[in-house]
């Protein structure tokens, strides 16, 4: 009778060792974006508590902060999930990155006018470029062959 047990004792292999590099890159990008979203929510809440009001438009700092908490928290959780080898994070990151990329493209570069001529300013324009590039990199990383194969298995 063979009483020797396998080395893994019936446990599955560590999923972190089997995660493709492209999935890890997308996980780090989305986790960082989610963290930035949560920090933005905190800044919006502090500004609203301090009494900041927009003169030209009706914007609620609290409502905008809630939106950033929901999107930022979900994106951060999905990014951490990808870094831990959890496949459920992939769909969430794909959808969020597409939404962010479309939002950045339509608001900064879209029909409302170019950011350079719309009075947005160079720092915001540069930030939009960085955000758009990071979204594109995360999308490309998750749509690579090794990432799709990892997700399918």
Automatic annotation (TrEMBL):
Keywords: Membrane, Transmembrane, Transmembrane helix. The chain crosses the membrane at residues 25-50, 62-83, 95-118, 124-143. The keyword Transmembrane applies. It comes from the Bacteria. This is Integral membrane protein. It comes from Dietzia aerolata.
């Amino acid at each position: 009778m063979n009483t020797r047990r396998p080395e893994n004792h019936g446990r599955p292999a560590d999923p972190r060792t089997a995660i493709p590099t492209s999935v890890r890159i997308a996980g780090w990008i989305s986790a960082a974006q989610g963290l930035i979203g949560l920090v933005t929510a905190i800044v919006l809440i502090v500004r609203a508590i301090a009494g900041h009001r927009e003169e030209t438009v009706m914007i609620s700092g609290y409502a905008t902060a809630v939106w950033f908490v929901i999107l930022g928290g979900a994106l951060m959780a999905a990014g951490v999930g990808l870094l831990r080898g959890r496949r459920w994070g992939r769909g969430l990151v794909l959808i969020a990155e597409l939404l962010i990329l479309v939002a950045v493209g339509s608001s900064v570069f879209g029909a409302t006018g170019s950011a350079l001529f719309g009075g947005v300013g160079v720092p915001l324009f540069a930030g939009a470029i960085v955000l758009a590039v990071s979204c594109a990199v995360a999308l490309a990383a998750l749509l690579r062959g090794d990432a799709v194969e990892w997700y399918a298995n």
